[in-house]
């Protein structure tokens, strides 16, 4: 389970806006909040029924690892396969390097559209679990 901490910066209806500190530096560094490596980004999460949470509360945000990996696969594999298939098919038909590259790029773009359609069909709308942070 992937877990991070955040703070509620706004609540509108059933949507909660969270400020999440991105930790791009060393995970074991104790000074990551003061060194400037970690930046903050806002995320809006819909359909929450957490009435006990208020603006300014610190929360723990978690998402199952399987969901994270599944979404990553659905978004990255189709474009990569599209590029490879476009290039291989064009080369097999005797196209030169330039045409094979163009076919690969067309496959890449097609793969991006396929990835978007795949995530829409699967209904994968990643909604993390949000709990009040334990002190």
Structure explained in plain terms:
It comes from Viridibacterium curvum. The protein is of the alpha+beta class and 135 residues long. It folds into two domains: 2-63, OB fold (Dihydrolipoamide Acetyltransferase, E2P), CATH 2.40.50; 66-122. The protein has helices at 65-92, 97-122; strands at 2-12, 15-22, 39-45, 58-63, 129-132. The protein has a five-stranded antiparallel β-sheet. Strand 1 (2-12) and strand 2 (15-22) form a beta hairpin. The longest helix is centred in the middle third of the chain and has 28 residues, at 65-92. It is elongated, with a radius of gyration of 21 Å. Residues 34-38 have low confidence and may be disordered.
CATH class of the largest domain: Mainly Beta
Estimate the global geometry from the Cα principal axes.
elongated
For the sheet with most strands, the description reads: 5 strands, antiparallel
Helix/strand order, N-terminal first: EEEEHHE
SS elements, strand count = 5
What strand order characterises the main sheet?
3-2-1-4-5
| Distinct helical segment count | 2
Q: Which structural class matches the secondary elements?
A: alpha+beta
Q: What count of structural domains?
A: 2
Tell me the distance between the termini: 20 Å
Q: Roughly what percent helix?
A: 40-55%
Architecture per CATH nomenclature, i.e. the level-2 architecture of the largest domain? Beta Barrel
Mean pLDDT: 76
Into which percentage range does the β-strand content fall?
A: 25-35%
List the topology elements:
Elements: E1 2-12, E2 15-22, E3 39-45, E4 58-63, H1 65-92, H2 97-122, E5 129-132
Antiparallel strand pairs: 1-2, 1-4, 2-3, 4-5
Helix pairs in contact: 1-2
């Amino acid at each position: 389970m992937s877990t991070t901490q955040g703070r509620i910066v706004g609540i509108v209806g059933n949507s909660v806006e969270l400020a999440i500190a991105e930790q791009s530096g060393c995970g074991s560094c104790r000074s990551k909040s003061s060194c400037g490596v970690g930046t903050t980004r806002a995320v809006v999460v819909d359909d929450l029924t957490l009435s006990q949470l208020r603006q300014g509360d610190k929360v723990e945000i978690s998402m199952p690892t399987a969901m994270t990996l599944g979404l990553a696969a659905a978004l990255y594999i189709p474009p990569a396969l599209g590029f490879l298939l476009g290039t291989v098919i064009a080369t097999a038909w005797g196209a030169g390097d330039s045409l094979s590259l163009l076919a690969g790029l067309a496959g890449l773009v097609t793969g991006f559209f396929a990835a978007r359609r795949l995530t829409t069909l699967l209904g994968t709308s990643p909604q993390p679990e949000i709990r009040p942070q334990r002190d």
